[in-house]
Each structure stands twice: as C-alpha cells, then as structure tokens.
Automatic annotation (TrEMBL):
Origin species: Tritonibacter scottomollicae (Epibacterium scottomollicae)
Bias-annotated ranges (Basic and acidic residues): 561-597, 606-657
Region (Disordered): 526-690
Homology family: Belongs to the DEAD box helicase family.
InterPro entries: DbpA/CsdA_RNA-bd_dom, DEAD/DEAH_box_helicase_dom, DEAD/DEAH_RhlB, DEAD_box_RNA_helicase, Helicase_ATP-bd, Helicase_C-like, Nucleotide-bd_a/b_plait_sf, P-loop_NTPase
Keyword Nucleus: no
Keyword Transferase: no
Origin superkingdom: Bacteria
Upper lineage: Bacteria, Pseudomonadati, Pseudomonadota, Alphaproteobacteria, Rhodobacterales
Molecular function terms, GO-annotated: helicase activity
Any Pfam family hit: DEAD
Protein name per the record: DEAD/DEAH box helicase
Comp. bias intervals (Gly residues): 541-560
Length: 690
C-alpha cells in the first residue's frame, strides 16, 4: 500500500482492512475498471479511495500542484457526497490532496471559485456536476479516475442521462469504478457501455448477510403504530436511532409527536433546505439529537455514529429499500436492530419483503409499558453512577442530604429525577382483542328485550344518532344495552335489554321522559311495524318502461316502436330487414294480441313490403311520404329544383364554375378587387370613347 495512505489509516485506528477494502487494494487490480457489490457499511468509501490511489498519485505517493481534476466521485445525494468528501480528506491528507465539492443546494459561485483555484478530487452529485460542465466552469480533460458510488440508487432516482452525459465528457482512457449494493440489469448495462474489461468483485455472503443486524417484526393495531414506535425507542434506548417514513407528511407528524414526548429529535425530508439538513445531521453527530425521522431519499447514504436502531414506521416499497434502510445500522462491526411496524393488514407484505431480501425476522409483540419500565430499572441499577466515588467537593452536600432525608426519600427523589428525564411508555392495545372485536360472526345475540315507545318520529325530525345518546344519558345505560331503534311517522321505538329495564326505568323516574321532554311508554310486546322494503328492481332502465333505454326490450307500457328512429329496419333502408337478421325477434310481437305477427317466411321478403314496426307510420308507403309531417310540395321530389328560386335565368353552362362568392359589404377590399378585375365594369374616360 502507498505509504501516505498507510499512515492515514494507522492514525485513524485501522488495524486491518474490511473484505471489500482488501479486494480492491489488490496490486494486480491497479488501474483496472471495477464493478463492486458490497454490503452497506462495509467501508466502500475508503475502499475506492485506496483503489484509485495508484492512478492519481505521483510515484512518491503525493499529489502535484492542484489544477484540473484528476478524479471524480459521484454520489446520489448531497449528504452522501459531503460524507465522501470528509472521508477522502483524511485519507489523502498526507498526500497533499485538494478536494472540492459540487452538490445541489450549495452556492454555485463558491464552487466555481474553488474549481478555478484547482482541485485534485471533485466529489459531486450528478445534476450539479452537469450544470458546471454545461456552463464551462469545470475542465474534465485531465480526469484519470471516475467513481460512481451507490450507482443503483442513482439510476433509481433518474440520473441515468446525467451520468451518461458526464462519462461522455471524460477521457476514454480512464479508470472507472462502479460501487453498488446490487448489480441489476441496468447496472450491468451501464458497466458494459462505459467500462473496459471490468473486474467483478463481490464481497456479499448471502448466508451471512446482515449478520450484525437483528430484525424484529412488531404486529400492532393501526391506531397504535406511533405509540409502539415510542415504546420501541424507549425499550432500546439506542445512542442514535433513525425512524423511516414514506411521506413528508408522516415525517412532520412523527417529528411533532416525538418532540412533544420529550425526545431529542430532528427531521430529514426533501422539503428542507440544505442548511437545515446539514444542521440536523450535525445535531445527530454532536449529541444534541438522538433520533432522526427521515424519508428514504433524504436519508440515502448517510452515516451517523453509534446508530444502533432503525425503525420502519411505514413498510418500504421494495426489499432493496428495506436493505438500504437497515444498512444504516450494524456498520463497522457494531450490532444493530431493525424494527418493522406491521399492522394486521400488512403482515403478508412484510413477509414478502423479508423473503425477497432473504432475511429472517423475529415476530414479537411491541414492547409493552411494563417491559419498558422493567428495562429502565435494569439500566438504572447497572448505571456506573452507583460505583463511582463522589468527589471531595461534594462531600458536604452529601452529608447534608443524608442528614436531612431518609434512605427511602433519597431513593424516591432519585427515581423521580430518573423518570422525569425519560418519556413515559404507552399502553398498547392487544392486537388479538382488536381482531376479535372486528369479527361479526362472534357477535353475541341481543337476547330478551323490552320495547319502549317514544313521542316524536320521522315527522318531528327524530334521528337514531341523536336518540341513542339521549337514551343512554337519561336511563343510565350504555349503548350495548340498546338493541334496535325504529322510527316511523309520529313515533319512535327503542329496544332495551331485559336485564337493564329495571335500572333504566328507575333512572328515568316517574316522569318517564328524556331530556328534550319526549315521553316514553313501556310496551307489553314488540310493536307491529311494517317491514322495510327495498325499491323494486327494474330490468332494463327507466321506471315505467316507457321511453327509457331499456324500453325497447318489449312488453312495457308506453312503448312506441318508431321513437328510436328508423335505423332498426324499414322499407327505405338499403339493407332492409337484413340489418337485424342476427338479432332475436322482439318478444312483444309474440305476446301481443292486437297486432299478431306471422312467423318469418322461409323466402326472403323484399325490402319495403311491410314496415318492421308493429304499427305503420302512415297509410301511404314510406317512400311516398316526406320525412316531415307536412310535405314541402305536391310534386314529386325529383321534379322540383333543389332551391325554391333559380339562381339565374341563363343556362347553367353560361355561369362560371364554382359557387358564387359571398357578397359582403360593397366597400370591402375583396369587392373592390372584384370590381377592378371585371372589365365590363371598368371606367373608360370620355376622351377614349368612340
């Protein structure tokens, strides 16, 4: 390994390299194109930093004076790009590297000035780097190495065109490294197009994948998801935790809920500015916040220290997203936990995600309030504060406390202080009891009952939704003691469980009236009420069967065969009766007694011998009668000219071809032009006449 990089690694505390770092630092692969798939959190950033070192460094392991960029590192998000820049800064610190960043959300003028001063390595996001290229503020002619970090995510986010544009602007003789968690078909196509004899490296062992992460699936009631998240956070008490939600609205809701419960929480979502996102991440790194609520895009590629817990408030859309979310924890040899909040309706989806990701999860109930309190007790008793010696400066204070309070009082005071610094756990609903309540088949019959009549019915505006709470309040019962409520014109009737009737009447008192003054009367038997009837089902459309869409089905009163027009058949149609040859005959003709219809003849009837409708439209044949009720003329249609008045007395051949132009106004430009072109109307001066 190059000495300057070796010194930086030792100073950072590296005693050995991770598998992916060992693989890419093989001397036989120096300068070669690489297609690398590695597990998240496996040290890929340091890995590709080592892999490109032999290409961009001088023989002495240092950089020459900074000029045009020698290496490009492209990442999908701003946070990941800035994180990569920080890692490469200490890795190449002894080599004298100058790094610059080109990421969205930053001042482009500052980035342009940094590029003008010169940089050895540029870390960028695809969109912002393309902007610099198109504006001519970056020169890529000297690029010797290009690294695409999280290439699969960049393709998923729609950066394919930007990546292809950037790669085409770089020299063909370059070292290209693609790092991706999975090598899908689009990744393979990109590698085949822009890499030369790429070496395939995979350090993912499917049997041991995510061995440092324990997966927990908690089935909770839909209304208890947020309460379960609170209990999970309290149960684990991770130094840092991240909660994933699918939408910005869900992020904002969880942020508000957790803040109100006393958690030190920040949010990451696309609606935040770059400064706000950077501030949130810095708060997580320096300990001012312990929980980050984020969407998938905002949290892509971020690396937070001591992140031991990932909570999926919403299930991810794919198993790849599940792996990327969970990969935020269990990094660099640390143990981590990934908790999925699963509602009863989403159990199958959760199982499918885990199966596709080749993960096994432990299906357990979400931590209850008692379990959280028990874990708090364990942490409190094992706290190092009990074994540490008190400093001499506190001796006087300790003596005064012991003198003033009993051991029980001191213990109670300490316990209150301990509990005040932590959010109280939530009581969760048993999912089994929720499912039981939803099963209608398990509903118990109402049993024996007594009916009561109440003054006022539908005519007075009575409503069951208003009557039910009035009965409960006036009679001192709950809604389970009330069966059916029936409302008719001038009365209302309520069914009360028989075992509750005595208490109901005692609470009502002798007046037997509700709060609004409506009097009640106990009935000896159930009221004889008419059965609720459903509106009759009418096959074929409009009620009455007259002129609705289905009226032509036959047999309905008010049907007139000719109302639908003459397209159904008739004497004047060229197709005649053959138009309906594939249709079933009207059933009305078979049932009618007024106009019996003979069966169809074997021989084809000439079109027009008989109308297709039961009642002819007129006494005359269809062809002899005009289409309108009043004929236009007594003469045959063919003997009358098309227009009432002939256009001209001259023969048609003497007229110019084509329709006459519109007259318009005499003073119009067109009419003036026509007059000028007509030689018969031109003015001849008197001197020229004769």
């Amino acid at each position: 390994m190059i000495p300057t990089l070796q010194q930086a690694l030792e100073r950072r505390g590296y005693t050995s390299l991770t598998p992916v770092q060992e693989a890419v630092s093989d001397p036989e692969l120096a300068g070669a194109d690489l297609l690398v798939s590695a597990q998240t959190g496996s040290g890929k950033t340091v890995g590709f930093g080592i892999a490109i070192a032999s290409t961009i460094l001088e023989e002495d392991g240092r950089f020459a004076r900074a000029g045009t960029p020698l290496a490009l590192v492209i990442a999908p998000t701003r946070e990941l790009a800035l994180q990569v820049k920080r890692e490469l800064t200490w890795l190449y610190g002894d080599a004298g590297a100058v790094l610059a960043s080109c990421v969205g959300g930053m001042d482009m003028r500052d980035e342009r000035r940094a590029l003008e001063r010169g940089a050895h390595i540029v870390v960028a996001t695809p969109g912002r780097l393309r902007d610099h290229i198109t504006r001519g503020s970056i020169d890529l002619s000297g690029v010797a190495a290009v690294v695409l970090d999280e290439a699969d995510e960049m393709l998923d986010l729609g950066f394919r065109e930007d990546l292809e544009f950037i790669l085409q602007e770089t020299p063909e003789e370059r070292q290209t490294l693609l790092f991706s968690a999975t090598v899908s078909k689009p990744i393979a196509t990109l590698a085949q197009t822009y890499q030369t004899d790429a070496q395939r490296i995979s350090t993912i062992n499917k049997s041991e994948q995510h061995s440092d992460i324990s997966y927990l699936s908690h089935v909770v009631a839909p209304h208890d998801v947020e309460n379960a998240i609170i209990n999970v956070l309290r149960f684990h008490e991770a130094p840092n935790a991240i909660v994933f939600a699918n939408t910005r609205a869900a992020v904002n809701r969880l942020l508000t809920r957790l803040s109100n419960r006393g958690f030190q929480v920040v949010a990451l979502s696309g609606e935040l500015s770059q400064a706000e996102r950077a501030g949130a991440l810095q708060a997580m790194r320096d300990g001012r916040a312990r929980i980050c609520v984020a969407t998938d895009v905002a949290a892509r590629g971020i690396d937070l220290p001591n992140l031991d817990l990932v909570v999926h408030a919403d299930l991810p859309s794919s198993h790849e997203t599940l792996l990327h979310r969970s990969g935020r924890t269990g990094r660099a040899g640390r143990k981590g936990a990934s908790a999925l909040m699963v509602t009863p309706r989403s159990v199958r989806k959760a199982e499918r995600l885990l199966r596709d990701a080749k993960l096994s999860a432990e299906w357990v109930d979400a931590p209850s309030a008692d379990e959280v309190r028990g874990r708090d007790m364990e942490r409190m008793l094992s706290d190092a504060v009990w074994t540490e010696e008190a400093p001499e400066s506190q001796a006087e204070t300790l003596a005064k406390l012991v003198e003033s309070f009993s051991p029980e009082q001191l213990a109670a005071g300490y316990l209150r202080l301990w509990s005040a610094a932590r959010s109280a756990p939530e009581e969760l609903t048993d999912v089994a009891s929720v499912d039981a309540r939803k099963k209608k088949e398990d509903r118990v019959p109402f049993g024996p009952s007594v009916w009561f009549a109440i003054d006022g019915g539908r005519d007075a505006g009575a409503d069951p939704r208003r009557l039910l709470p009035m009965l409960c309040k006036a009679g001192g019962i709950d809604k389970s003691a009330i069966g059916a409520i029936r409302i008719v014109g001038d009365k209302s009737y309520a069914e009360i469980s028989q075992d509750k009737v005595d208490g109901f009447m005692a609470t009502l008192g002798g007046e037997m009236a509700l709060d609004d003054g409506s009097a009640l009367e106990r009935l000896n038997e159930a009221p004889n009420l008419p059965e609720r009837s459903k509106p009759p089902f009418r096959k074929g459309g409009a009620p009455g069967g007259g002129k609705g869409r289905g009226g032509f089905g036959g047999g309905k009163p008010g049907y007139k065969g000719g109302d639908r027009g003459d397209y159904k058949g008739g004497g004047d149609r060229k197709s005649g009766g053959d138009y309906k040859s594939d249709r079933k005959p009207y059933r009305a003709r078979e049932d009618s007694t007024d106009h019996p219809v003979k069966p169809r003849a074997a021989k084809p009837r000439p079109s027009g011998d008989k109308p297709a409708y039961d009642k002819p439209r007129g006494d005359k044949p269809r062809g002899d009668k005009a289409k309108f009720d009043k004929p236009r003329s007594d003469k045959p249609r063919g003997d009358k000219p098309k227009f009432d008045k002939p256009r001209s007395d001259k023969p048609r051949s003497d007229k110019p071809k084509g329709p006459p132009p519109p007259a318009g106004k005499p003073s119009s430009k067109k009419n003036k032009a026509r007059g000028a072109s007509d030689t018969s109307k031109r003015f001849t001066p008197p001197s020229k006449r004769g």
